[in-house]
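Supplementary Data S3. Sequence and structure tokens for construct A.
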Amino acid sequence: MTSNPTLSAIRDAAFTLSGAADDYDPLLDLVGDARFMLLGEASHGTHEFYRARAEITRRLIEERGFTAVAVEADWPDAYRVNRFVRGMSEDVTANEALGDFLRFPTWMWRNADVLDFVGWLREHNDRVTGYERKVGFYGLDLYSLNHSIQAVLEYLDKVDPEAARRARYRYSCFDDFGEDAQAYGYAAGFGLTQSCEREVLEQLIELQRKASEYARMDGRVAEDELFFAEQNARLIKNAEQYYRTMFGGRVSSWNLRDRYMFQTLEALHAHLSRVGQPAKIVVWEHNSHLGDARATEMRTRGELNVGQLVRERYGRDAVLVGFTTYAGTVTAANDWDAPADRKQVRPALPGSCEALFHETGVAQFLLPLRASETASKYLSEPQLERAIGVIYRPESERISHYFYARLPDQFDAVIHFDQTRAVEPLERTARWERGELPETYPVGV
């Protein structure tokens, strides 16, 4: 066994994950009375990350009184799940409740681990008395421009048909582009068509102006439905801007998206906290969104993220947790909108935190960085860290998937699984089942 002091410090500070019920006790101790628990992932397609987040979230709900799960998903798609887990929808099964996740990448939320968690959340809520005590499920993202338009119109059709008529007129600005929001963004961004900025802003303002009138209609449930509609109108305004800026540069569109997700998290927290104690929310997103951007290369590019904004606003009232893996398989695509593959994850590059964790010889562990000054000191220098999104390109591994980060400043804790396997899509194709053949040539490029 090597006498490397960094490895020794990590082993001394780490808690081995053995599958026992108390594996995450140190993490719950770290949470304390914090109102926000941010649980990341190093890929959008790894079973162990989803399973661990679900396990930790269950304990936070049952033992620490967390009242909502907010995820990197579109608001209206996730709200269908919210209605199901609260027992307020026509969906009979968790599979049906996940039915609105039709946009690429469908496996990100239509997978076996999320299905199990949504089923558990419904069972938990069924045992809870009182609407306010049931745990909700919400989306923070802004891609669902057309779906959100339909949601606003359906809400207004029920509560204010005349307002619905005005909303249809305003939103007809997008009609020439059908369901293709990116085509609208390209045309508007390059001045090929007039933007819909004024129309979506007017609609949001009108809905907000009439909010008190709509909220008086039928108690708490009506307030939630109003909040759902208002958030959809806010999403449309931000999505319109996002699609216009996405062709103008990565930094501006990235920052707009993460600011929006943070603002949605704040709006959700305020909505859920309006009676009783402040709400406690678990957030599930990628490491790149939830690890503090100031501790990574993102800062030098002028990028921020949700983790940074939450820390700046709430300090120790938020706990940021990252996930890492050394090798295994992952569900990912070769390109945007391409089919899902079960791809081989190359062993982590030398000089990366994943390779360092692999050298400890511990198969899976929790490393509380905030609580371990010694481990944090040895990990304080920038080192490579891997990020796999919905696309994985191992042929350009270093350029496409690695960046430098100071781990103790990025996260309060890290959970490492040395060998991981691909998350299982609910729609398993022959292509996914076949998977990739393991690579036999040397890696490290």
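Construct B, processed identically:
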Amino acid sequence: MAMNLAEIIILCLLVDWAFRKIRVPGLIGMLLVGVLLGPSFFGIMNPQMLSVGSDLRMIALIVILLRAGFELSRESLHKVGRQALLLAFVPATFEALAITLLGPHLVGLTTMESAILGCILGAVSPAVVVPMMVRFMHEKRGTDKGIPTLILAAASIDDVVVIVAYSVLIGMYTGMKVNLAWMVASIPIAVLVGIIAGLATGTILYRIFDRHNPRATKRALTVIGVAIILVHLGDVLEAKRIPFAALLAVMAIGFIILEKRERMAHELSLKLGKIWVFAEIILFAMVGAQVNLKAAAEAGFAGAALIMIALVFRSIGTALCTLGSPFTWKERLFIVISYLPKATVQAAIGSAPLAAMASKGMPTGPGETILAIAVMSIVLTAPSGAWAIEWAGKRFLNVRSDHPEQDGRVSGMID
């Protein structure tokens, strides 16, 4: 496994360098490395790497979510509160409804099966979106209006909403008893509990750091360790049907430390940025390795058409959320583009309906169709979405230059 990890690191670094030379986001190259090494292509990735792939992806995602939290200022959140709340619900609802209505006609699923697929596809990908928004925040792109903050906050809640909706529908479909009122109420409860837990954890960590003053590297490692524990706690609570938005809790840790001691937050963000060089490789290579090209091909033209049409409806919903905002039409278009990529949730639960149907002795054909379309959504939107976000960010977002010295310093950190 160690040699396999070395191969992944070297290949991803080389591909990242080559893709940046031709002005293509390096993460696309890393995704392709994962696809090529994974079981659906050459199949040379060590099975042990694949078996721990979900854990590695989650640790890498935690690193970038922590960095995002250390950039979430109270001022920025105040600017985007209303739009963030709308973006957390409306685009996913538009997309899921389109799939529910069109699924029976295009891919032969029932209305309920189409609704399940709609919930799976309705989630935006934190793995693709969060790293790029953090990068734009460091580059001061769109930060004068809080646009990267808006997308970070909304995308985190968006995932909570669609996963809860999926849980309700798959439970009803497989004959499980579902308390609909509790499941609906669990969405705001999960968000609130996650934020409170993160704020409390961050406050405790800040006080420990302030009293004992450990080195910044040890602080960063401590924060990562605590964040992993929080996410594991979220998994335990979820298994017991107790709502808890773990990813929001992770971001809230950074937010409260930034509020308490800005300098400490920037030091931690810098250390996490260095760790991210490695974590980024792991995240995108492992996401790529999860892509099953055979399953994606089985979705066929009808599956691709369903995904594309649903994305049009999602874009309409996203655009409606920006009405009445101070954003220009270019900034609104950037927000629409940023809300398109699929990867994380689709890779995590795309196969869950198939497993649920098999465990209940139900026909597995619909589950195979759902999995195939979920995989195809990653293939079609993750690389192209990443490229489109970077392209749109550089052309549609203004660079804030009210602190030129700081901007120069931050730019140096990124390089």
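The first helix runs from residue 2 to 21. The chain has one domain: 54-284+292-414.
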